[in-house]
Design goal:
InterPro entries: AlpA (IPR010260), DNA-bd_dom_put_sf (IPR009061). Pfam families: Phage_AlpA. This is AlpA family phage regulatory protein. The protein has 62 residues and is of the alpha+beta class. It has one domain. Helices cover 42% and strands 18% of the residues. It has 3 helices and 3 strands, in the order βααββα. Strands 1-3-2 form a 3-stranded antiparallel sheet. The protein starts with 6 loop residues before the first strand and ends in a 6-residue tail after the last helix.
């Protein structure tokens, strides 16, 4: 049986980077953040490993 992917919800991501939901979605749309994963219905999250790599690389949002 596969382990579920560790996902970061948008509220957690907002807290991690100190930005609003709209900024997170703008960064995602513009390709500055990794794309989120849609599990089912309206459940969406970002893969924890990708966000950690993004943050370690400096979280390039310029």
């Amino acid at each position: 049986m596969e382990k579920p992917l560790p996902l970061i919800k948008i509220t957690e991501l907002c807290e991690m980077v100190g930005r609003s939901r709209s900024t997170i979605w703008t960064w995602t749309r513009d390709g500055l953040l990794p794309q989120p994963v849609k599990l089912h219905g309206r459940v969406i999250g970002w893969r924890q490993e990708l966000i950690e790599k993004w943050l370690n690389a400096g979280g390039n949002t310029q």
